[in-house]
């Protein structure tokens, strides 16, 4: 079943000015539940822009975005924010964890924001941290964790609200190759266990090859890689 559909999406920054840049130009894609898809693009090709549009952080200049069957163009800002919070998990190259908060507090934040009690959010956070092999690091702050551990906390946080769609931008791109490979495997296992649809940007062909298929973004359009 369809989770995300983009049709003929265009995105121009600073439209109508001398600084106008068209980044997306007729981009289309469909992701089904359970599909894990690699997104490969040259640097500057608009990978982050595409992920932001797909995750409702940014609006396209034209074209259609449908998330969980809901066309998002007509939705109010509040409805869009709610849909993003409930349906989408994000992982970035750098973890963006809050430095003053422990691992369990960081992972509990999305559920606290969604209105769950402190106890329920913390229980869910502990369960997720155990799933990423960090049951012994619950009270550690980000600075007290290794790079690979920090990214695993970020994965746990991304999954806290049981999203239907995971969007990841070079999720292991700042780790050494061996850690990257190991941590990436863990992310794939988690995604496959939960039946999420995932769109994962990577420059690494070896990581792309572990996913179900590869989409290429070039000159504003998306094509299926052979
Ligand atoms: P990638 O993630 O593939 O490197 P981005 O989506 O970050 O690409 O950026 C694609 C192009 O869009 C770049 O030329 C970038 O400078 C431009 N761009 C990105 N964000 C903005 C913005 N907020 N305003 C103007 N231009 C932007
Ligand atoms: P910057 O925009 O300077 O990179 P931010 O801390 O504002 O720093 O954002 C860090 C990243 O988080 C960016 O890629 C941004 O697009 C993304 N981001 C911003 N707001 C949200 C949000 N509500 N949910 C998920 N990601 C977000």
From TrEMBL:
Keywords: ATP-binding, Cell inner membrane, Cell membrane, Hydrolase, Lipoprotein, Membrane, Nucleotide-binding, Transport. This is Lipoprotein-releasing system ATP-binding protein. InterPro entries: AAA+_ATPase (IPR003593), ABC_transporter-like_ATP-bd (IPR003439), ABC_transporter-like_CS (IPR017871), ABC_transpr_LolD-like (IPR015854), MacB-like_ATP-bd (IPR017911), P-loop_NTPase (IPR027417). SMART domains: AAA. Residues 4-226 form the ABC transporter domain. One of its GO terms (molecular function) is ATP binding. SUPFAM superfamilies: P-loop containing nucleoside triphosphate hydrolases. Gene3D superfamilies: P-loop containing nucleotide triphosphate hydrolases. One of its GO terms (cellular component) is plasma membrane. GO terms for biological process: lipoprotein localization to outer membrane; protein localization to outer membrane. The lineage of its organism: Bacteria, Pseudomonadati, Pseudomonadota, Alphaproteobacteria, Rhodobacterales. It is an enzyme of class 3 (hydrolase). Belongs to the ABC transporter superfamily. Macrolide exporter (TC 3.A.1.122) family. Its EC number is 3.6.3.-.
